[in-house]
Amino acid sequence: MTIQGAERVILLHGLARSSNSMTKMETALVEAGYQVSNIGYPSRKHRIEDLAKMVRKEVLETSDEGDTLHFVAHSLGGIILRYIQKKDPLENLGKVVMLSPPNQGSEVVDKLGDWPLFKWINGPAGCQLGTDENGFVKSLGAVDFELGVLTGDRSINLILSLMIPGKDDGKVSVENAKVEGMDDFMILHVSHPYIMKNKTAIHQTIHFLHSGQFDRTAAQ
Q1: Coil, strand, or helix at residue 78?
Q2: pLDDT at 219 over 70
């Protein structure tokens, strides 16, 4: 017998952040009628492979059998989800919105990843987010789930932006946020650290979870 569950949204924060960074998004999703699990994980302490195991376990512990599992993932959170779905896929995966994901890596990691200070701040997972064709991120390949990507073209860190070709959000270029297999893509005028709190990003996230596409009629 099939058990009909809830529409549950799993929130995954980014690198060197906490679940607190997703509370504004959480509140909006609850108001929109979703069950929400705002998951924290020690992003600076482990490699992505180990973080993925932790996150997957927490997802199962905080959801019920039969739930449709949607995801809203900021930055590293999106890469963790891609790894989970490649190696040990979650059943009942619904729609996914990624916010400023380094889906093709970040040139910042290419240039600073060997620096001791960078390693201390960003940990093992941060050092896996380079753009090397033979690196971790590129090995994940195309996505095979329903995905919308929101990314920014504003930066509050001009030094890092000098390391990134083309338009960027201070951490990831607009082009490197894209991934083969995504269903929709939108650029917002917002920076990497604040996209999850941005009013337009929240509206677009909820719109995608409802309809499978972003709202082209909404003003940025």
Answers
A1: helix
A2: no
